[in-house]
Design a protein that fits this description.
By secondary structure, this protein is an alpha/beta fold. It has 10 helices and 8 strands. 2'-deoxycytidine-5'-monophosphate binds at residues 23, 45-46, 49-50, 102, 105-106, 109, 135-137, 186, 190.
Amino acid sequence: MNHSSLLTPHSSPIPVIAIDGPSASGKGTVAALVARELGFHYLDSGAIYRVTALAAQHAGIALDDETALAELAGKLNVRFDNGEIWLNGEKVGEAVRTEESGNAASKIASLPRLREALLAFQRSFRKAPGLVADGRDMGSVVFPDATLKIFLTASAGVRAERRYKQLMEKGMRANLARILQDIQQRDARDSARSVAPLQKCADASLLDTDALTIAAAVNEVLRRYQANRPPGVWN
Ligand code: DC
């Protein structure tokens, strides 16, 4: 009989909670709060695509130049620090939160070689005691061995209203009909692309937030994590 599994300490991999879903579904807010609750690190992978698009614009690279974009992504000088993003030593601020930035990110995100070039950087966020990562392909591609995979969504109308409110609160100009149109176009592009399309993977559990408050969605993710977490992981 082999007793080695009893004698060696249980080495569990660093847990990851992958939260994927369409834009403006609230996954970023929920993911950040879940991370805070558990004391985990947080990866906003959409911000990586957004800041890459911004870096490309600064460097004068066209958003369909796959070779140049992949090269740029491979040597991206980006730092995430306490909710702030730094690009080449400068604070990025709200420049990556605009609808234009989201659209530019969505365009470059359809390029396979660019996605490949960003993989290692995204995986470098997996550090003890754990990670909550949000995006489109966190569960399917970046962290296929995630402890818990959530597909968090809401109807396009509800998402447009949430995004509208968010922009108004930040004092930014916003037009609800335009936002809805943008969201529908972005959903279509993100879902139709050939690499890592936006879709619920088979082992992800669905969380529809149309009728949920943020707090209720956070509690539901925590509940599912507690039910899924491997033995030996304490959080
Ligand atoms: O989550 P977000 O809206 O900040 O993401 C911006 C764009 O980046 C989104 O339209 C699609 C792309 N994206 C992606 O393709 N894969 C990810 N893991 C995250 C974002």
